[in-house]
Design brief:
By secondary structure, the chain is mainly alpha-helical. It contains 3 helices and 2 strands; from the N terminus they run βααβα. It is 78% helix and 4% strand. Helix 1 packs antiparallel against helix 2.
């Protein structure tokens, strides 16, 4: 019989956040339509989805606790680089948004 797959710690949280964003984006569009401000709804949808997804991910992590393993050194390094890149892109987006607002 084949041995059960072991997933790195945080795998199920990522799955939960993906599911939450999938739920939150349409909810945000509907919310934007109701508020008569579609851009605001589209921006709120993923934020709401991440909140929902964290709850789903935490439940999945707890349910699959026996199927997770600690991160390897390579996975830790990859996650650190991805986090740094994410912060850089987020900062660039905020700066671009502020620049466009100031130059109206």
């Amino acid at each position: 019989m084949r041995e059960q797959a072991k997933y790195p710690k945080g795998h199920w949280m990522g799955i939960g956040i993906c599911i939450g964003i999938g739920i939150g984006v349409p909810f945000g569009v509907i919310l934007g339509k109701v508020m008569d401000n579609i851009p605001l709804g589209i921006s709120m949808g993923p934020a709401i989805g991440v909140g929902i997804g964290c709850g789903i991910g935490a439940a999945l992590e707890a349910k699959n606790k026996d199927k997770t393993r600690p991160l390897t050194e390579a996975e830790k390094k990859t996650r650190k680089i991805a986090s740094i890149l994410g912060v850089i892109f987020l900062s660039a987006g905020v700066l671009f948004f502020a620049y466009t607002l100031l130059n109206r």
